[in-house]
Amino acid sequence: MTLTNSGQFQITIAFNKEYVYVDQQENYIQVDRAYFVYEDDYELVLNDAAKILQQLQKNGEFDENKLSCLRKVYVPSTYIELKPEEKGAAMIERNGKHYLLLNEHTRIREIPPKLDLYENENKDV
C-alpha cells in the first residue's frame, strides 16, 4: 500500500500464478497485475487488502465487487513464444523490452504503484 501527495492509497498485486479477470461483458482476461486506488482511509484499504489475501489463499480468486476502491486497473498478461535457446531463462529481451518469465524458479516479489492512477498527484494543495 502506498500513500502519495494526493492523499490516496493504492493496493498493487502481481500474480505469480495464472489469474483470470472476468470483466462486465463477461470476457475472460488473463492478467499479471492489478491496481486498486483508494481515498485517504487507511483502515478501509487495510481491510480490503486483508479480504483480497484471504480470498485468494482460500479460493484462488477474490470478489472485486466487495472492494471499496475508487478505481481499478487490470494489466493483461503478455504471451511470448520462446525460442529454443530461451527456454529455461529467467528473463528475455525482445525489441529492447525485458520480460520476466514466470515459472517455478522465478517469482515477482513486489511491483511499484501505478502513479498515473492517482488524482491531483502533481497539483499544489
Classify the beta-strand content into a percent band. 25-35%
Please state how the strands of the largest beta sheet are arranged side by side. 1-2-3-4
Structure annotation, total helices: 1
Into which percent range does the helicity of residues fall? 10-25%
- Tally of structural domains: 2
- Note poorly predicted spans: 121-125
How would a textbook summarize the main sheet? 4 strands, antiparallel
**Distance N to C terminus:** 22 Å
Q: Work out the number of β strands.
A: 6
If you average the pLDDT, what whole number results? Answer: 86
Which class best fits the helix and strand makeup?
Answer: alpha+beta
Order of helices and strands: EEEHEEE
- Give the overall form: globular
Gyration radius, in Å: 17 Å
What does this structure look like?
It contains one helix and six strands; from the N terminus they run βββαβββ. The model is unreliable at 121-125 (pLDDT under 50). It is an alpha+beta fold. The longest helix has 18 residues, at 42-59. Helices cover 14% and strands 33% of the residues. It folds into two domains: 1-77, no CATH class; 79-108, no CATH class. The chain has one helix spanning 42-59, and strands spanning 2-3, 9-22, 28-38, 71-76, 91-94, 97-100. The two termini are 22 Å apart.
